[in-house]
Design a protein that fits this description.
Blueprint lengths: L1 H5 L2 H28 L2 H11 L2 E15 L5 E4 L2 E9 L4 E9 L2 E4 L2 E14 L11 E18 L11 E19 L4 E9 L2 E4 L7 E4 L2 E13 L6 H7 L2
Antiparallel strand pairs: 1-3, 1-12, 2-5, 3-4, 4-6, 5-6, 6-7, 7-8, 8-9, 9-12, 10-11
Length: 240
């Protein structure tokens, strides 16, 4: 009778229930891993997203406009810039140089160049859509170096090709969007710069000029990750 009780359905039932529950939990866990990745993968992804990177960009102006009344476009600007940030943070540090801009009126030539430093905000950064598309807003200050040239000054030959120079400071802002290709990002950006300058411009006293401008640049951006590894999982999630 004792042997029959040990092998009876009454004692084997709880074991079957426990095994069924364990099997059910394992199925759910496997399904969750297949859909969302394992806990180790998610932990690795989160850690990788917090690693820093530097983005380098070069661009050419496709449109620009002086803020000084009466000036006309002479030369299109070019730009180079750097960004430093983390993949999971929408804010990053931004610095750029915008050079070779030139405007003219009659025989006067105004050449403002800008060094910009500020903060860039990318609200989609860290989201899945940012793997292909992102939007950007940049704000900060600029240091301007402006040259004013009298190319041909009638009547006074000593003023011909005379160059006046001035340093100034102002505000800078930009807005744009980017589309990511395999190794690069194409990013059109509209920048605005403020600035003031004073030049003689053929007079006996200095005249006030607006050295600010609006510039639309087409940027080509490439990101360099500061922590590299041969780990396949790292490369998969950080996309080297």
């Amino acid at each position: 009778m004792t042997v029959r009780r040990v092998g009876s359905p009454y004692t084997a039932g709880p074991m079957k229930i426990v095994c069924g529950k364990v099997l059910f939990i394992l199925i759910l866990f496997s399904l969750n891993c297949s859909l969302h990745g394992s806990g180790t993968d998610r932990e690795l992804t989160n850690r990788i997203k917090g690693l820093p990177s530097v983005s380098v960009s070069a661009g050419a102006g496709v449109w620009h406009m002086p803020l000084q009344n009466g000036m006309e476009n002479r030369f299109l600007p070019v730009s180079v810039s750097l960004e430093y940030g983390r993949a999971s943070c929408p804010f990053s540090l931004f610095a750029g140089a915008f050079i070779f801009t030139a405007y003219n009126i009659d025989y006067f030539l105004l050449k403002p160049n800008y060094l910009m430093a500020g903060i860039q905000y990318a609200p989609l950064k860290g989201k899945r859509i940012s793997e292909k598309f992102n939007i950007y807003a940049t704000g900060g200050i600029n240091l301007s170096y402006t040259r004013f040239t009298e190319e041909l000054y009638p009547g006074i030959t000593s003023y011909e090709n005379k160059v006046e120079r001035q340093l100034g400071a102002g505000l800078a802002a930009g807005i744009g969007a980017g589309y990511k290709l395999k190794y690069f990002e194409v990013r059109p950006m509209l920048f605005g710069f403020t600035g003031k300058a004073r030049f003689f411009a053929g007079h006996f006293t200095k005249q006030a000029f607006n050295a600010g401008s609006l510039q639309c640049h087409l940027l080509i951006v490439h990101r360099f990750n500061l922590h590299k590894t041969a780990c396949p999982a790292f490369r998969k999630y950080y996309k080297f």
